[in-house]
Amino acid sequence: MIRRAILCGVGHYLPERVVENAEMETMVDTTDAWIKSRSGIERRHFAAEGELTSDLAVKAAEAALKDAGMNADDIDALVVATSTPDTTFPSVATIVQGKLGTAGFAFDVQAVCAGFVYAMATANSFIQSGQSRRVLVIGAETFSRIMNWEDRTTCVLFGDGAGAVILEAQDGAGTSADAGILSTDLNSDGRFRDLLYVDGGVSSTQTTGVLVMQGKEVFRHAVEKLAQTAHTALETAGLSADDVDWIVPHQANSRIITRTAQKMGVSMERVVMTVQDHGNTSAASIPLALSVAKREGKFQPGQVLVMEAIGGGLAWGAVVLRL
Question: What is the pLDDT at residue 116?
Fold first, then answer.
């Protein structure tokens, strides 16, 4: 027998303000056609004035708890993936813990767009070790607050939102037929840190800074590294691309998603795509996509999901999970 982390609840929250590409045309020198052709994005959500990352996280968490039929006091650990915290400290996770009333411990994970994958791997380790029984994992971002509105190539790509999942310990047989997380694969390479970063920080400039990205280089690394990490995670789980029912990728760019699926040999009919409606919500994008797909009735018990993401660092990874 082996202890597995079972997915037992998902939920998401999107700010009320929807920003269509037509509105972006009034804000920066761009066009709807250009944005769609480069990214596939049609709209995104922006947090309201005074609406914080923790606010989004709490609402996504409440939706996940409702989906799981649980109360906040059923949770004994809380991990939030974010690069846009409310404050330098305390963590968003402890703020969310205080608002929800969960027990145990809470902390943030910062791996930019790969943050949710890192947080899932961390939660899985807690469950496998017996440290935790039920872990609430949240990806939440307000990237609209760190955009350079004079850089038309990047500011049109990002949006705000939050998604959450609940993982629960359950015994499995230790085979690839088990439900729950079957494998994880995490990677990073700091040599490429200048390809995607924020040009501010507490220790350097004492300012928040704005996002800087070398889009072409990030694209090139993304396709190669996402396909490779997914392959490695599947191999570790004792599975292949033929066993995959759904890829739930980081929703950064429709072209990256399509190219990665092609490289993996997986039909786009088996890929969850929400980037057109949300833009790139960084660490929130995978749980957002999970929640939307579940609401649409895409998932069935026993199906195999591959979640993969890449972000600043560069950091990337994948999670293989059976429903």
Answer: 98
184 and 288 share a domain?
yes
The encoded tokens of residue 314 equal 């560069």
- The answer to whether residues 162 and 65 belong to one domain is yes
Range of the domain at 253: 180-322
48: DSSP letter: P
The count of domains in the chain is: 2
pLDDT in tens, 202-248: 999 999 999 999 999 999 999 999 999 999 999 999 999 999 999 99
Length of the chain: 323
The mean pLDDT value of the chain amounts to 97
Say whether both 161 and 188 belong to one domain: no
User: Are both 9 and 157 inside the same structural domain?
Assistant: yes
Catalytic residue numbers?
A: 113, 250, 280
Q: CA nearest 57: which of 137, 159, 124, 168?
A: 137
* Helix/strand/coil (H/E/C) assignment for every residue in 203-271: CCCCECCCEEECHHHHHHHHHHHHHHHHHHHHHHHCCCHHHCCEEEECCCCHHHHHHHHHHHCCCHHHE
Higher pLDDT, 80 or 1: 80
Q: Among 123, 140, 172, identify where a domain stops.
A: 172
Residues 144, 92 within the same domain: yes
Taking the model in full, what pTM does it have? 0.98
pLDDT of residue 179: 98
Crossing angle of the two packed helices 254-264 and 215-237, in degrees rounded to 10: 40
On whether both 101 and 61 belong to a single domain, the answer is: yes
Residue 299 φ then ψ, to 5°: -90, 145
Distance CA 205, CA 203 (A): 6
Write the Ramachandran bin of 246: left for phi over 0, alpha for psi from -120 to 50, otherwise beta: beta
Query: Is residue 317 classed as helix, strand or coil in its secondary structure?
Result: strand
3-state class of 312 per DSSP?
coil
Kindly report the CATH number assigned to the domain that includes residue 54.
Answer: 3.40.47.10
